[in-house]
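Objective 1.3, modelling of assemblies. Example input:
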Amino acid sequence: MTLPKPRRASLERHFPILQWSKTYDRAALTSDAVAAVIVTIMLIPQSLAYALLAGLPAEMGLYASILPLIAYAIFGTSRALAVGPVAVISLMTAAAVGNMALQGTAEYAAAAITLAFISGLILTVMGLFRLGFLANFLSHPVIAGFITASGVIIATSQLKHILGIDAHGHSLAELITSILENITSTNIITLIIGLSTLAFLFWVRKGLKPLLLGTGMAPRLAEILAKAGPVGAVAVTTLSVWAFGLDTHGVRIVGDIPMGLPPLSLPSFSADIWSNLFVSAILISIIGFVESVSVAQTLAAKKRQRILPDQELVGLGTSNIASALSGGFPVTGGFSRSVVNFDAGAETPAAGAFTAIGIGLAALLLTPMLFFLPKATLAATIIVAVLSLVDFSILPKTWNYSKVDFSAVAATIFLTLGFGVEIGVSAGVLLSIGLFLYKTSRPHVAEVGLVPNTQHFRNILRHDVETDPSLVTLRIDESLYFANARYLEDYLYDRVVCDEPIQHVVLMCSAVNEIDMSALESLEEINKRLQEMGIKLHLSEVKGPVMDRLVRSHFITELTGDIFLAQYDAMVALTGANAQKSP
Amino acid sequence: MTLPKPRRASLERHFPILQWSKTYDRAALTSDAVAAVIVTIMLIPQSLAYALLAGLPAEMGLYASILPLIAYAIFGTSRALAVGPVAVISLMTAAAVGNMALQGTAEYAAAAITLAFISGLILTVMGLFRLGFLANFLSHPVIAGFITASGVIIATSQLKHILGIDAHGHSLAELITSILENITSTNIITLIIGLSTLAFLFWVRKGLKPLLLGTGMAPRLAEILAKAGPVGAVAVTTLSVWAFGLDTHGVRIVGDIPMGLPPLSLPSFSADIWSNLFVSAILISIIGFVESVSVAQTLAAKKRQRILPDQELVGLGTSNIASALSGGFPVTGGFSRSVVNFDAGAETPAAGAFTAIGIGLAALLLTPMLFFLPKATLAATIIVAVLSLVDFSILPKTWNYSKVDFSAVAATIFLTLGFGVEIGVSAGVLLSIGLFLYKTSRPHVAEVGLVPNTQHFRNILRHDVETDPSLVTLRIDESLYFANARYLEDYLYDRVVCDEPIQHVVLMCSAVNEIDMSALESLEEINKRLQEMGIKLHLSEVKGPVMDRLVRSHFITELTGDIFLAQYDAMVALTGANAQKSP
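Predicted structure (tokens):
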């Protein structure tokens, strides 16, 4: 088939698979297949565990790890991203759906499927309208704080499975209270399974690889075996329960998992359910996208590849829609499994498609063997995975660098722990934006003078500079817009009222990136009032884009003074005596 | 009584009356009393009319013009502001309360009283916490658009009284549809009264003062007589209705107004009512404050006086609480009546207290005479007053200056007309903030070079400048923060990937007023990746406050290049050959 060039390029932009599949060869196939085997081994226990975390039947974890991976292989632009259920999104799913239905009911599962569908639609539409930039409004420290706090909540929520008791709650306090209330009914055998799995997995993480390397094993193989730790734990604990009939002693097991490929499912289209889930779906979409795109960018940079954020939205969006249509729940690109995929040598998104086949085979063949899998084992897998996300060092780091960033992070962590993920992350976003607006509404204004023997002007309070009593030069360190227009007026009047011999005020606009209509009106007002006081107003170093706009306004004709290209020109022109011919 | 100095100053800050009353003398008393008489004459028909506009019994307009004026005289800082019911706030009151109860019911009046109380609390708390700056987030064009659209809606809503029919609706379309549906039941006598009053008031506005001046009358007296137009219309139309028994021919009249001073009233404390009214109360508080403070500032500037915005919040807040406690509804400083007060010579807030006495006397003595006052007369008063607020010129003005401002104004006008005041103004605020954030998230970045024979650097695309192929200098025209941190990364990689001989990248930070934690992490990332490409990263013209913070981070030690005080120093140091000893 031969398409005209531009049409073909556009097709490739929307279907990245058309691009990489052109040069796909046997070498790439081998690399991708090896990576897929490793990721499959890692993903089986993870997908079961995250379904459990989301409060859903275990098989939904498998379903969410088949079709979504195929959709991402077609529409995604990252070569190494591994899509599927992840911890934070599963927790957010539980929080969103838990408001609407009881865990274990058909309504609960249906709501999770609908949530994936809405979230998929939101992501896809954002991608088609190129709204990827919206994700930039989550500041890095807020994300770091949110992930850390979510990790703490997730780990705490899994303690009930380790203890073999019932407990529930969205906030840390609720969870701990609920666990303490029921701790007397702890099942000792479950606790032993849980703690020993935990200890084993921690040891695998830290100690197994060095040990294997010590035996002279190839580093790559050692790496793979270390990653297979959870699968080992699953096998051993499942066999133990089966062999000793521990389920009859109160050890809770996964139980019957339907055998076979995912069924076709349809989301609910009830307006009521949609309006209840919509805000949660937005939060899940944005958090999922931010988490996924930052992993994808990190991995792409290592191989000098590029990802396209707007196309990534489409990739994740179609993945979530695929998840909803095949009985799954919200998915995104996971950090640890993508790194494993990358390290294992995945070269194209085909690795994801191969992983989907692997999980599909597991769903077809392995599910009967998982009947006796203790929930405590899955809980231990989750705890070990999320504790690696917990990193409170963002608190001292931001405290040291910027109190504003610190307060946003601290509030995000506090509110997430105290009131759950949805309130926590919403507050973090609003607070980041609010604090930014607050800062820009009270801009830094510096009175500047000439640095001797240069043409450079700096703050008179920080540097030894030359000034002239008849001339006040104010450098405004912010764009002028509605939120700070009045502040500038007040500042300026306060400054000129006290000193008497002032004849000229120069506003040095090197840091003014915009003057909006409100600020223009303020400048007109300032110009008029200074004129009444016999003071001329000048501007200097006005940037091109700002000047383009000013010339279309009356302000330029009404301005009592001049507009100078450089502040040095202004000083020479306005205080002739002080002119220096050479620095 | 002698208080220690600091305590007395603090008392005077919270009770401005203590300050101006110290020097109050007979001359000020005379001026204030004259101004009060004129404002009282103007305020009687206005307060009745705005009660009608808010859907409330006429006497509540009088009640809202007594105690609130006394409260403002004690706590307010403007010497000329005249507080009372105003058009836009009355319309917003009708919109807020209309969602909760039917006009004419006791619940409706009680909700309006409660709305005044909540709004008063919000304003007072904002004042005590010095949150006056929040009002800055309403951009001038958005306010102008909102007031214009509100004026159109108010004028349209009053047509029903001119026609003598029933009609209702919050949006322009609803109002017009409702009027057209009922237009066949127009009462001809009412229409004649309404149209002739309208014609008379428009003529008074434009024609009466020149006419009186033509007869050789003193300008001040002519001005006062022109302002008394509405009172004349009230007297003539009331007498006509009484004399000819027009009320028995279907002319709707104000009817029984209880005689006497306002009763003590208490707001409702039902949680349900509060939660229903809270958002409306916030909007009314902010719009009322912005309108009032801009009038107060304009008038204060004319006499070189200062107002304190945070204390103004307390003044307006206590006025609204006073209104709620005396059977009134939300009030604020009105534009036209404050200008009249100022022009009539008011020297202190005592003029407001005297006006309160005037309105109190009217409530005690005049109410029986207002029984036959036709509602059409009041409607004509409102229409003439609000049409002076309607000014669509903000649309071409912003279109010409900035499409971003234009779109915010156009949306505010469109949404206010189409969906009512609350949606209109909320959308205007959110859109202003959203567009500002969008702009800052995609900053202007200019590649700059040296303007020959200077030490000044400008955009290579706009100016004839000197550059060096091994050196790329990028001037970033925005503070670096979370919303644009990734944009800068992308921009920079795209720029350095194409050109080969680049050895140095200088980020010229003259317009960077802040680098937050997210942006710092991006800079660290950029530094690392450029290092891998063999390119050194430098900064120049970093501002004091930004530098203070950078030195507390790891970035400074990891930076591959240097930090230069001036961009010229950077060019000399990095491209030695190009150095010029003198400009």
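The first helix of chain A runs from residue 5 to 14.
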